[in-house]
Amino acid sequence: MTSSNASADDKPPLLPSWRAWYWLVLGALAVEVAFFTYLTRSFAP
Fold it and tell me: What is the distance between the alpha carbons of residues 12 and 23, in angstroms, rounded to a whole number?
C-alpha cells in the first residue's frame, strides 16, 4: 500500500508554494479588473 501512496506523491505540485498561488490569484484579479474597466470605458457614451 505504501508504494501506491509513494507513486501518488512523486508528482511535483502544480505550484511550489503558497506565494506562487497568492501571486497567481492576485494577477488574475488585476487582469479581470483591467478587462472590465476597458469594457466599461469602451461602451460608455
Answer: 19
